[in-house]
Design a protein that fits this description.
With about 250 residues, this protein is an all-alpha fold. The protein has one domain. It contains 11 helices and no strands. The chain starts with a helix and ends with a helix.
């Protein structure tokens, strides 16, 4: 009940944030702009619209998670409301989880509106519902949930600006980690390769949630990958939330 109350209060606060609607506006503009881009490009217009649309959902969903998530805890500390909250019979982990689920609910609604605009645009070109696009959108949401946990972790011990930089670096590294894997395959056995493999094991692989190419070009996807990606996102998010709770418990607000 306490987590739910904090979650709904967080949702009410987040839904009034102007930056959320600014990002939603730019996301809608990029999705609609894909129609013009398709007209100016040689190739399958529908595939271009799908590709640009899904990329817009992924990019602006990540930006919303990072920019909103990095200020979740800091705003409470800056406004001194954290003292009032923690003086009540509320555990710190309940406070963090409530904040997390409240923001997840907000991002779900924002992603829903962006997806509605995107799917409507695709429907106007194909006159049929492309159900496969829902697969890519679902995994974009899983990635957004993970990025929200990342942003919350950094917000527990840093300022919003630094937290945004750290979270954005996490996002970029996560999508470029495949390059490190290719380097490992080309390395000769030795201590350097072993250390690189250890590093690669801890670096997030956000490409596990990237099904844009397969969906747009109707490529086959092994069914076991779907389950692995979901479990990867859930357990990585839980791990990050666990770290955030440990850090937040150590903070002294007196």
């Amino acid at each position: 009940m306490k987590i739910r109350a904090i979650a709904f209060n967080t949702f009410k606060e987040a839904i009034r944030d102007r930056i959320l609607y600014l990002l939603l506006f730019f996301a809608a503009a990029c999705i609609i702009f894909s129609r013009l881009l398709a007209l100016l490009t040689v190739g399958d217009r529908v595939k271009i619209i799908m590709d640009v649309g899904l990329a817009s959902l992924s990019l602006f969903g990540a930006m919303m998670a990072i920019l909103m998530g990095t200020g979740l805890v800091y705003k409470e500390i800056d406004k001194k409301t954290i003292y009032t909250l923690l003086s009540k019979p509320i555990h710190r982990y309940q406070f963090l989880l409530g904040k997390y689920f409240g923001l997840i609910l907000t991002l779900f609604i924002m992603l829903f509106f962006m997806s509605f605009i995107f799917l409507t645009l695709v429907f106007l070109h194909t006159f049929r519902i492309e159900w496969e696009l829902l697969i890519a959108i679902f995994y974009i949401f899983v990635e957004v949930c993970l990025l929200t946990a990342v942003a919350m972790l950094f917000s527990c011990f840093s300022t919003p600006i630094l937290s945004s930089i750290f979270s954005l670096s996490f996002y970029l590294i996560g999508h470029l980690s495949w390059g490190l894997e290719n380097s490992i395959n080309k390395m000769k056995p030795g201590i350097v390769k072993t250390l690189t493999q250890i590093l690669y094991a801890f670096i997030p692989d956000l490409e596990n949630f990237n099904f844009k190419t397969e969906v747009v070009h109707h490529l086959p996807i092994p069914s076991e990958i779907f389950l692995f990606s979901v479990l990867y996102g859930i357990f990585y998010s839980l791990f990050l939330l666990f770290l955030a709770i440990l850090v937040f418990r150590k903070r002294d607000f007196i």
